[in-house]
Q: What sequence folds into this?
């Protein structure tokens, strides 16, 4: 007598759970489902063979994804003079198979455990995806299949590029089996990967001034991240004769290329966010995923490009977000061509970091070091007959700060930024110099720092 086991299942009559068993057989080692046998293996038989076979084939065709019909054979057998429907299922080649209404989730993917049909674990689902989808993360079927593309549609529309089912197949957002790929997930509104930004006080990760996390479609994350950095990217004005020259803290093209590099070359098989840290003197962008195997940092700096996410890069190329593969790092370097401080690129086994120097901050530091050396040599002229040191007269900015301090009793860094129309680094450098020369006294720390009138005569 037949008995139930990993590859054999009995059903007394057709029930809705038949399709769960078919999915489980296809995801494991195949098997045979007998409809018309009791749990103990005794023959019950079915009243209408044709009706039962029709219900089985319709359920398999309509409810199971990807299409599994080519791996299923439904036939009529006679046992002990009674009609039994046998459903033979082979192990499928496009696993995991799942119920269309449930998606590629444990409640939609079934496997065999002994003689039982049970929901698959997430680990088992991912193993099946890797086994049948190869090494390419972006081409593998996405676990989430209930996806929308509102942001991506807007993005394509603004650039006059068609974005429909046909284009989604061509761009590999939809795979050959008709399901959404991980690339589709990345560009969908349901993308689970994020970009985290943090704005710090000073040059260390000690005091947070602000932090944000951007989610959803990669297109939306890019827009929000660029907009956020742009708000932090201040403009410094200098005059060359009668001409005013505006200089951003960070070259906008360098910021754009660094963000695009982070999004396109990130290893999305790791569920870790892209990190953007904005300091007083630099921006650091850290992404998961080191260099592609076989490529060195020297190769990258020469313009060699081996794509980890080939189809994602192709989407960005078609939308003219990137011009050509392998030029991003070179463009970032070119943006700092006239600057003494250059971008720094570091690659670890599983991470890549780009550091963009704040060009205005570096200019101000060198200017202050040079001028403070002159003032240090000239500032103390003599001691008057009361024994007090007499310093050289403050410049116009220092006079304005001292006047504000005298009227209010103290000044804050933000007061100086507003009154002098200067960037945060400039305000910090001016205040630091005034503290060093005794014009001001620093009180408190962090956001609560105040500057009081100093004790030295100026």
A:
């Amino acid at each position: 007598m037949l008995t139930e086991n990993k590859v054999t299942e009995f059903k007394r009559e057709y029930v809705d759970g038949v399709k769960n068993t078919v999915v489980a057989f296809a995801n494991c080692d195949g098997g045979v489902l007998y409809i018309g046998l009791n749990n103990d293996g005794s023959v019950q038989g079915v009243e209408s063979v044709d009706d039962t076979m029709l219900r089985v084939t319709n359920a398999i065709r309509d409810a199971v994804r990807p299409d599994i019909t080519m791996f299923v054979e439904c036939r009529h057998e006679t046992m002990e003079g009674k009609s039994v429907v046998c459903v033979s299922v082979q192990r499928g080649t496009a696993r995991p198979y799942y119920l269309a209404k449930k998606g590629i989730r444990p409640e939609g993917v079934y496997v065999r455990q002994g003689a039982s049909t049970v929901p698959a674990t997430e680990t088992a689902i991912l193993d099946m995806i890797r086994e049948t989808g190869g090494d390419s993360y972006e081409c593998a079927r996405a676990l989430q299949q209930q996806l929308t593309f509102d942001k991506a549609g807007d993005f394509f529309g603004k650039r006059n590029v068609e974005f429909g089912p046909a284009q989604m197949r061509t761009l590999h957002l939809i795979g050959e089996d008709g399901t959404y790929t991980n690339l589709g997930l990345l560009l969908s509104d349901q993308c689970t990967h994020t970009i985290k930004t943090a704005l710090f006080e000073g040059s260390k990760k000690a005091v947070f001034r602000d932090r944000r996390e951007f989610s959803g479609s990669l297109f939306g994350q890019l827009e929000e991240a660029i907009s956020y950095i742009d708000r932090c990217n201040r403009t410094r004005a200098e005059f060359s004769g009668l001409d005013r020259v505006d200089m951003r803290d960070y070259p906008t093209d360098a910021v754009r290329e660094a963000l695009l590099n982070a999004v396109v070359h990130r290893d999305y098989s790791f569920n870790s966010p892209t990190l953007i840290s904005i300091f007083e003197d630099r921006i650091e962008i850290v992404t998961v995923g080191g260099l592609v195997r076989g490529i060195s940092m020297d190769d990258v700096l020469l313009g060699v490009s081996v794509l980890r996410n080939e189809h994602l890069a192709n989407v960005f190329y078609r939308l003219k977000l990137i011009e050509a593969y392998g030029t991003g790092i070179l463009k970032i370097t070119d943006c700092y061509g006239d600057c003494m401080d250059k971008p720094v690129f570091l690659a670890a086994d599983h991470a890549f970091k780009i550091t963009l120097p704040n060009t205005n901050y570096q200019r101000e530091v060198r200017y202050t070091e040079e001028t403070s050396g002159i003032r240090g040599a000239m500032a103390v002229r003599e001691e008057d007959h009361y024994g007090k040191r007499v310093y050289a007269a403050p410049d116009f900015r220092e006079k304005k700060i001292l006047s504000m301090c005298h009227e209010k009793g103290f000044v804050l860094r933000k007061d100086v930024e507003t009154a002098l129309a200067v960037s945060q680094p400039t305000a910090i450098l001016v205040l630091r110099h005034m503290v060093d020369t005794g014009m001001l006294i620093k009180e408190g720390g962090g956001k609560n720092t105040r500057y009081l009138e100093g004790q030295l005569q100026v």
Summary: Residues 368-392 have pLDDT under 50 and may be disordered. The first strand starts at residue 8 and ends at 11. Residues 359-378 form the longest helix (20 residues).
